[in-house]
Structures are given as structure tokens and as C-alpha cells.
Amino acid sequence: MNEFELIDEIVAxxxxxxxxxxxxxxPGDDAAVTRVxxxxxxxxxxxxxxxxxxxxxxxxxxxxxxxxxxxxxxxxAAMGAEQGxxxxxxxxxxxxxxxxxxxxxxxxxxxxxLGVGLVGGNIARGPLxxxxxxxxxxPAGQALLRSGARPGDRIxxxxxxxxxxxALARGGLADCRAADQLDPLARRYFRPRARLPEGIALxxxxxxxxxxxxxxxxxxxxxxxxxRVGARLDAAxxxxxxxxxxxxxxxxGDDYELxxxxxxxxxxLGVPVYCIGEIVAESGLTINGKPVVTSGYQHFG
Amino acid sequence: MNEFELIDEIVAxxxxxxxxxxxxxxPGDDAAVTRVxxxxxxxxxxxxxxxxxxxxxxxxxxxxxxxxxxxxxxxxAAMGAEQGxxxxxxxxxxxxxxxxxxxxxxxxxxxxxLGVGLVGGNIARGPLxxxxxxxxxxPAGQALLRSGARPGDRIxxxxxxxxxxxALARGGLADCRAADQLDPLARRYFRPRARLPEGIALxxxxxxxxxxxxxxxxxxxxxxxxxRVGARLDAAxxxxxxxxxxxxxxxxGDDYELxxxxxxxxxxLGVPVYCIGEIVAESGLTINGKPVVTSGYQHFG
Lengths: 301, 301
Fold this sequence. Notes:
2 copies of one chain form a homodimer. With 301 residues, chain A is α+β, with helices and mostly antiparallel strands.
């Protein structure tokens, strides 16, 4: 099967997931053509996931594909963006149409779940890697940034933390094949849900937001740095996922929950939300009054 | 140097190339925020370049960075799009800040030359690969597609073909360090120029267009397939780059010139343009009356 036959099959597998009301030209031309709703700004990010660095390459390809879309779109959620479309660049070491078909099935499920169109892509020979660029919309000036946290804001997170780190620490993820066979910890790793509705509900309310990809302390640290503020956390308030430790909840990555700050009443989000501390004027981060260094997953250094 | 220090340095090196009049939030948040001009559709594509597959990894990093941006933006040119912005996902095997700085200098030069903002990116540990998503604009309904070629259209290409293939066949590209030391053939490979102004000038005139990344015959074949037409080419009319052969001009990739079809008068493009044949109703491609199979660079199969 040559490159173009493989692309034709991917597009056939995607079906309606390759289009949408805002898509005029989907996969198959030099580029996709989409419409941007009036009054909206465009929100755009790119992520790359490398085989056996960011995911176990031997795991079921549908699990890999689903997770690749979800973790990439999570950046849109952190901005309070409405979902638009994604582009996928796939580097493959071998010609394995069955593997690519299963990967596409997983991507399609995530795209359909989120309501994003998978409107274009690229296939190249190379060590296994998946780059996903994600594109959404927010009313002009309303995107949630990292830089708006203010002293007195309360700090919140959605959901429970540390589950994906606990799954990684336990091991065995490379043996996982299909979503319906995952135990709860493995689901935390393979089946995150990009918090798009929650991010949208926070527009005009939250002063700052970020998604938790590298660990709570490190990601909150980005908000503190961008906003030039500090934070006080209450260890007992950190929501630790069942099967995880407080350490994993503080430092573990891959949960893709939202962390945000706001003053005043919390809008209804429809998911568990926990207040874990507050923003203070003095720089630095303390937990139960003790200074901590923000750290988490770093690719280098 | 950790991941975040490296990103800070990349952003500092980019300087004004990370922003632009349509950019409200550039690198440093979860996503970039940009404005889309009124009445414009969004044109988006993604490319991936793998070290020692799509470029010699040992070549000068500024050459690699410049070329990565140019070849990716070439897809916008093929659509007749106006330049907008790009996102770059960089997978790096080692922590080499000097290499990344030079790569960024090359990317900055290409971005400034084209007038695109490099508004976001991602850095990950992994085998060397560069994914670039590119985004531009075209007035609603005016993007150039592959599917509009009609019998009677003349087929044109910009520039001369085969030079990049001749440079690859000659070898030695891995030893190239800097743009000012390249001989003409090596320039054909490392210093393509995305044909953005030419694509824009062809809007409303050309019936179809594609950029020549995989070879004239293969890329023209995509137009023929999408438009359900055939083509007759005149071998003597194919513009062969100095130092290249007709075979390289027909089958060699990496030239990033435009191939387009139109009826009637050719608009002034400001670069050499050659009429190489015409579109016919009968399917298939002939050169001097002899049927040929479209082929070129395929990543698989």
C-alpha cells in the first residue's frame, strides 16, 4: 500500500469526522479550508507525542490515537476555546496499514467525542511520532490566559490528580489493547477527556487557566510566573485520584485536568472541582506554609 | 538548560518574528491567539520533516530551519493563500542549545522573508523531527484547489525543475553549513522560496494548483485525479534547472515550485513561468504522445 492509498484509507475511516459545518475543504488538497465564526479569535497550538517517550508504542493503536487527540485538544480547553479542527502529522517507521487504521479509529472516536474535525494531515517515514496541531475559537479578548491570576484568587482544579502518574509507575501500559479492557488507573492514562465545556464555562470568570500536562506544581508555576504572583496550597485539599499518592498528584503529569484561578463565585462546571489554595502577592509557592520548588516532567535538563 | 529555559531562548531569538499585526498572544501560553481578517477563510496544513529522511541532519541547523519553514508554507502558496502564522513542533534527540539557536535563526529568516509569524511550538525529546503547521487566509471561496482543472486548460510551472533532485543525487548536502557558502545546486535544495505572491496572483485565474514537493509527474497526477481529467505534456517545454536532467525535472521532488492550470491569459507573476502542456478530457498522462505512469517520491510502498 503506497502513501496515497494509505491516506485514502485514513480519510475513508475518518468519514464524517473529517468534516463539519465550518469545513469547506477537508483532507485531500494541499491544505484544508475552514471558516472562522464572526467575532471569534483563532486559538492554535501544536503538540508532539513520540513513541516510547510520550506513550508506550506497543499499546493498542486505538488507545494511542484517542489519547493523542485528547491531550492535544486539552490546550484549547485551557484557553476556554470552542473546538474547531485538528491536523495530524504521523511519522511511521514501517508500512503497517492495519496499525494505522486502528490508530485512526481511536482518533476518530476522540474527534467525534469532542466535536472537532480532523481536516488534514501528513504521513512520513520516520521514528514513530504524532504531531497534532489544534485550532479553536473564542470571542475576541475572552481567551483564558496564564497571565491573569491576581492576589486573592482562589486556585481550583477539575477532577482528581495523580492517576496517570500512578498508572505509569505501576507499569503494564504497553500491554493495554482496547478501551473496554482498561482498569480505572489505566483509563486515567489512556482516556483523558479534554475539558472543553469546562473551559468555555470559565470564560469571563476565571482570571487564569492552564491544563495539567506536566504536573500540578510545575503547571501552576507557569501561571505564577506569567502572572507575577505566588500561591499558597493546602495539602489536604489536593484531590488525589484513587490509587495515586499525594506526591503523584503534585508532581505527576498526564492528567489533563484544568487548573484555574478566580475570585468570587465558581460557575457550575458539571464535574468535580476542588479549591486547593489561593494566589498571594509574594512570589513563590508554599504548601501548608512550607516553600516548594515547582517541578514535574521536563523533557530536558 | 531545561525545556522552559530553551523555550525562553527560542522566543528571544525569534524576536518580532513571533508576532505580527494579527497576533494577540504569541508563544508562551497554552495556545496562540490570532485574528482572522474579515471575509477570509482559513487555509491550514501540516508537514513533518524527519532527520536524515527529509533533510540531512548533519547540515547547518540554520539551513535546516529555513528550509523547514519554506517547504511547509509552500502548501499555502499552492492554495493561493495569504500568509498568516506557523506553529513548530520540534523533537530533539539531545539537549544542544547552540544547535537549536541556529535552527531558530534559520526559521526566523524564512518567517521574516515570508511575513509569517512563528507564534507557537512544542519541544519534546525524541528522534530529530520538525513538524510545522501553516495557516493563511484567502477570500471566501477563492482558494486554489487541485480539483478545478478543465480540458483545454494550459498547464504551467513556475521556475526550473529538478535542481533539488540533482543536488541530492550529487551528494554532499550534509556538509553544507551556511546559506552564503552554497553553490547554485545546493541552493535549489536548501533555499526554496514559497511562491506566496504568485499563488495570490493566480486566485480567480488558475483553475487548479499544487506545489511541486514530490515531483512534477506525481504532483500533476494529483491534479488529474482530483479533477478527473488527463494531460498532454511536451518534453521540450519542461524547464530543466541548470545541472539537472529531464528525468530529475519530471520525477525529482523538493523544488517547491507551483504547477497550475488556466485558460486564457496568464497574469503577470514576476517570475519565470513555463507552459508545459494542456489538460485533456481523456484520463491519463502523456509526454510527447507516449503514456507515462505518474511517480515520484513516495514515503511507503
